[in-house]
Known about the structure:
The complex is a heterodimer.
Chain A lengths: L1 H25 L2 H26 L6 H28 L1 H8 L4 E4 L10 E4 L3 H7 L7 H15 L5 H4 L6 H16 L13 H22 L7 H16 L9 H22 L40 H15 L12 H4 L48 H10 L11 H6 L2 H10 L11 H13 L7 H6 L7 H11 L25 E2 L31 E2 L21 H9 L2 H4 L18 H12 L32
Chain B lengths: L1 H22 L11 H21 L1 H4 L1 E3 L2 E3 L10 H4 L17 H13 L9 H5 L2
Amino acid sequence: MVRKVVFSVFLLTSLFFIFSFHQEETTNTYVKYYLQQINAFKQIEKELVQTIKDSKNLNSVQTKMQVQASLQASRNKLKAIDFWLRYLDPLSHKKINGPLPVEWETEVFEKFEKPYKREGAGLTLAYLYLEEEKIEPQELVGLIQKSLDASDSYLNDSITRELNSYHHFYLCNRLFLLNLASIYTTGFECPDAESIIPELEQLLVQTEIIYLKYNESYPETALNNNYLNLYSKALQFVKTQSQDFNKFNHYSFIKDFVNPLFGLNQEMILKYKVSSRSLVDYSLNKQATSIFSKNLYFGQNPKGIFNRVKDPEVLAQIEAVGKLLFYDPILSGNNERSCASCHNPNSYFTQTELPSSESFDHKGFLGRNTPTLLNAQFNHLLMADGSQYTLQMQANAVITNPVEMGGNENEFVEKVLSCKDYKKVFSQLIKQTPQETKITKEHIVSAITYYYSKFSLHTSPFDLAMNNQIELDESVQGGFNIFMSKAQCATCHFAPHFNGVKPPYVGSEFEILGVPADTNYSSISPDKGRYEINPSDETLHAFRTGTLRNIAQTKPYMHNGVFNTLEQVVSFYNNGGGVGHGLLVPNQTLSGDSLHLSLEEQVQLIKFMETLTEDIPKETPPNQLPVSSNAMYKNRIVGGIY
Amino acid sequence: MRKSYVISLLFVGVVIFACSSSRKNSYVFPTEMSSSVQASYKEICDKGKVLYDIHCAHCHTTKKWGKELIPDFTSSQLEAYRIRIANERHEPIMNDEQVPAEDLGMIMTFLTYKSKSGIVVNQKNLDNH
């Protein structure tokens, strides 16, 4: 017994000793600064909660202003730690400063699970709540309390441990730079347009302090002088710019500063062999040298089941058979329709004549507009309602959809293999997939997805300009600046993909715009959108944000193809979407107010969008299709007949 | 002479057969799992085994007297996405492009249901990264 006590005492003292020693050892300047800043943020939030609790009448103008000022102080302090928060624990960050009252999570690690609902919280929502007519102190405190509670997670061991090596730093910085190009200058999480540029400046100044503290503690893997010099220039640039985000030169900021800084950071990631410990990184490519290059984000896996194939000869073989299949109506139930019927490779892989394509039985039209396949791979979820997770699932779903291609899942493999040429190629290709004992539909759809994914190269005039290879007209630059600011486009169409996938590219966003059924706005389009997949109040009429790349070539527009010109689309947004046009859309996520864009601004906006047109190689359809041994499939026509 | 040659050849054959059959994958599914579900899981496990051999075995499997010793990972170690970043050896070779989610899912299924090797994995090694 006594021995046990002595032993425990010994154990406790040694533990205590180790613990205190451990603390002393691991606390470097950089870590110390981190802890100090997180605690300071918590302190300010606590004071904010106290201010609200102490105030007698929240609805008086004076108190409101006081609380507002206090909230702004918290937001400013948040900018000092944004660099870390967003990367080290993305979910807690959303509780501290989430942009939406309710979000449906569709992040990568939950891709195969049902989306789940997360109540929003944090400073942005608190700020917006202050604008309500009647303010309940409980409600307001609740929003901020959730933010305060979430801040605690940043003091957890599992997170502070990361700070003791240099790796996290370059990955935090990569995310920071990507967000500088995508959201920080657009007002995405900023309720008050007037604070956007002041908050940006605050963010840049505070992050520079983090850089210097880091360099002090990690001299062997320090940010190099090239980077630091360019960064000070970026800061100088922002200081000389207008405080009005509508007049801010977003174009030059990204092209001359953010993107080159990103390139330098990527160089250091490779040079210092930076290794990630975070789930948010695996969709990003360490080899990419520019934000505007196709290999930045892995996106979907176009090779499908052939993902391990590297040999160019084998890849060429897959591509060639993929092309034949793309044009071959044998995949359809009546052998008259191919992928190319609706996704014409020489019309930017879509069809532009009709709002939507003819249905399989010729008796009507499909419910939704045919999207382009170009850049489909840079989506987290596929289809306007996000119903498909992978390109291969999507291809399979279209082939077997009774109103689209009317094929049969069990039959189409057999039909394809009834052609000697197909059988020969796939019998060779199966060697590349040793886990499969026979040729399956996966082999077939993977060849198709690989084929069409090769066309887009991210070399639109806008990409080239961002990579300093060409100059763009001033009016186009102006159009981009409007896109990023006044027109609010960039708060949903995030650069560089200009779709609903924002850094770090692990989820797809959906929006409710109130798109009408016809151009007279007689009613909202009856299509329920995301609701069909995940029914809830917030998902009724919600559609996944599509890409603007090649938009000038892929009319008609919106999920139902209701608009035929970009002018119509811009006017739709300029006048507040469905709500602005008098439709009843209680859950519209787009503001129903006018954007007050002048005619000239609208023209510039369209000019900018036209520079997103990529140079897509001309495709020549195959001369003939493989011959089937089954007489029923003998007279197929290249590309199908409708 | 000739006879003993044939016999020893036969013996070698039997040994090889025994080894290969002992190497044959076998899985342990929960008894509550219906037999049709088991059958489809077995199919996934078989594919997972092949993918494991391709992606993981050169670091994780030791061959001893014709037997494969695949570590018995614990369920907490088998969170598919976490494995990508579990340690610095994994991180550069296991991003979404190199080992897509679909492959990883099948490997996880295989590792979850494969019968235990009876080899004690040195937990210290596993924790030590």
